[in-house]
Structure of Magnesium transporter:
Amino acid sequence: MSSTPSRVFAARLVGLPIFDPQGDQVGKVRDLVVTMRGEGTQPRVLGMVAEVFNRRRIFVPMTRVTNIDSEHVYTTGLLNMRRFEQRSTETLVIGQMLDRTVTITGTGVTGTVYDVAMEPARNRDWVLCRVAVREPSRGFRRRGQTHVVEWRDVIGLARSDERQGATHLVAALNEMRPADAASILHDLPPDRRTAVALALDDERLADVLEELPDSDQVEILNGLDTERAADVLEEMSADDAADLVRDLPPETAEILLQLMEPEGAQDVRRLMSYVEDTAGAMMTPEPVILGPDATIADALAHVRNPELTPALAALVYVCRPPLETPTGKLLGIAHIQRLLREPPSTLVAGALDDSLAWLRTNATIDDVAAHLATYNLVAAPVVDADGRLLGAVTVDDLLDHMLPPNWRDRAPRPGTEQR
């Protein structure tokens, strides 16, 4: 490891791509695994938690790491693809050390941990060597003073901390994609997962919940007070919220729906009224809808909305008023590729595709899959018997329902190796 830095901070390591000797990326770093050895004694770094394809998290021993630089981690190339399972003697640096309350010996300063550094020891093991500590803020808008000290000069990391907050871990999660943040949240111990979920704001927690397994969603929602839970449900997409509410006890579900804003609750109730695993149950009730007098410039302005998924932004649905689902009669759909080829002042109605059959609410998963595959679509409208638009089914909605419930946790056969 001649070119490896002598000291590496964990927060800067998280998210770095991991490469094999051929230069192919095999995953990315999500955390460090250490074993604690008593107060004042440098913990040994056992390895890294890496995220590979399908968001599976595996363990990469430090003995397999050949080089670390500011932008990459390199390995020997052979990785055991068994899913990472934390042992009782192991501690996650990012997941469990950040936000611990510690005291710096000598000065008596107390603060919270916001980063930890590791370095190679003489025996070629990696050990934790430095701790970055931030004092509590002093006054309005003033951050507390920061200190980077030797591991031996800190007390409080070798024991559990009931006062442990989540500020710095939440800051790290807020920098990640929702799916990546969900992966880290999923693997935290239950009490730590609840604390972090409580510290996330409503919108961010909603984004992360949509990427978590059903059991985690229910557990986290049950850990919130009812008003906060209702607020989070309002921030979720209606179809994901409906799926989650279905998994709750009926009395709890009704309480949350009563606390939600009437418009949001109405969308959720409507989706819950359809049979599970049908187009009606999995559709999104808020696609991009325009009237027949809208221009292509109007359409392009709508699909630029960064909150739209790529699948929802791929189609514009032109309907007669009203323009909220259930709309007036659906006149046709406009593909984004077609819109990009037309003058911005042209009416969207002149670029419609009205030759396709629309989906009905009782269409099965197989029906939806066949429809999207037949017409090479990433989304399709769902209409009622009168031709009114009720919503749109996207390919990501379909995949969520086609994959087995535990698809996020599935691993290949034990012992499988990947280069």
Notes: The chain has three domains: 8-89, 167-273, 289-402. The CA atoms of residues 34 and 91 lie 5 Å apart. Confidence is low (pLDDT under 50) at residues 411-419.
